Amino acid sequence: MNYAIIGCGLIGKKRLAALPAGSRLAIACDTDLARAQALVELAKSGRAVSNFKEAVSDPTVDAVIVATINSTLATISDAAIRAGKHVMAEKPAGISVREIDGLIASEEKHAVCVRVGFNHRYHPAFLKAREIFESGVMGELMFIRGRYGHGGRVGYDREWRADPKLAGGGELIDQGIHLIDLAGWFLGEFKSVAGHVATYFWDMPVDDNAFLDLQTAEGRTAWLHVSCTEWKNLFSFEIYGRNTKLHIDGIGGSYGLEKLFHYQMKPEMGIPDTKVYEFPGPDESWRNEMLAFEKDVELKRKPDAGLAQVRQALQIVESIYEQNPKKL
Questions:
Q1: How far, in Å, CA of 40 to CA of 5, rounded?
Q2: pLDDT of residue 240
Q3: Within 10 Å of residue 32's Cβ, how many Cβ atoms?
Q4: Cβ atoms of 153 and 230 closer than 8 Å
Q5: Beta-carbon neighbour count of residue 160 at 10 Å?
Q6: Bond preceding residue 92 cis, omega within 30 of 0
Q7: Distance between CA atoms of 105 and 126, rounded to whole angstroms?
Q8: N or C: which end of the chain has fewer CB within 10 A?
Q9: Which neighbouring-strand residues pair with 116?
Q10: Percent of the chain, pLDDT > 90?
Q11: Cα dihedral sign for 162, 164, 167, 172?
Q12: CA atoms within 13 A on the CB side of 140
């Protein structure tokens, strides 16, 4: 497939590196033309432009990767969909449910494939956890406990993520939407949404911590905390079934070695049988996700992490912000 990558910063570079074999960069687009040109040079293919409309309308482009700031994701994705291109939009794909509804309408009208960048689903620990879950050995799920945090950096509160007009919120919409998506992937749709957000440390008008209590219609619970005052980066995701506990600890890099702990209860209870899976290699989640995207296109199937899924997650984000109006 021939791709246009719109937004040639860190995520744009990650997406380029994750393109499946046989696919290539046709157009790199950024408002900073020098950054677009640098991506072309890195790819050794394509051309650089600064206008996204030129990128999405190019007849040589099959699919568009939208890796811009949150406030422009929906506008650019919609233009690509209307041009008949398949789209990989970085999360959260828009800054409101209203924007996502517009994309859903465009997707249905133009019959293209739109996937949202929830790459955490494609970490090997989560793929293995999903395999174990689908095997049935866990029994009925009861609850999930998830924590995800980083410590920011000097000047973090002056970056675009600290501007509600550009980001749509703070830590909740940034890392929190990943935890919400993962929790819903295992537990199902959440009918009860409660929680609060706070700004404890950073000098910014958006949240630096969010605490969520989500429940399904059956009462299964996800208890989630996201933070950019973590200081030592952390990722922890625990899935509790009646027979099994799965614990994903770390996602590589500064978050620590990616591991999956499988605790299987014995009939007599007591100390469970324990198996530990370690995934020390490079982060393959981006490549795995792009392979899934190209398979979606080939099979003309709805992505398992598409606009419907991000809409559900954004509904929760909006609900929490509505409960805490002073923090957005």
A1: 10
A2: 98
A3: 11
A4: no
A5: 11
A6: yes
A7: 31
A8: N
A9: 89
A10: 98
A11: positive
A12: 5
Q: Which two three-digit tokens encode residue 104? A: 């859903």
3-state helix, strand, coil in the chain (%, to 5): 40, 25, 30
Token code pair at residue 304: 């398992």
Question: What residue type is 95 in one-letter code?
Answer: I
78-95 CB burial, b ≥16 within 10 A, e <16 = bbbbebebbbbbbbbbbb
Residue-wise pLDDT tens digits, 259-306: 999 999 999 999 999 999 999 989 999 999 999 999 999 999 999 999
Give the CA count within 13 Å in the CB-facing half-sphere of 196: 4
Is 80 exceeded by the pLDDT of residue 328? no
CA distances from 288 to 59, 107, 122, 292 (A): 27, 23, 6, 6
Q: What pLDDT, in 10s, does the model give residues 130-167?
A: 999 999 999 999 999 999 999 999 999 999 999 999 99
Q: According to the model, what pLDDT value does residue 301 have? A: 94
From its phi and psi, is residue 250 left (phi > 0), alpha (psi between -120 and 50) or beta? left
d(CA 125, CA 314): 25
Which residue is listed with tokens 């009208």? 109
Full strand arrangement of the beta sheet holding 209-216? 190-198, 209-216, 221-227, 141-149, 234-241, 244-249, 258-264, 273-279
**What letter would DSSP give residue 49?**
E
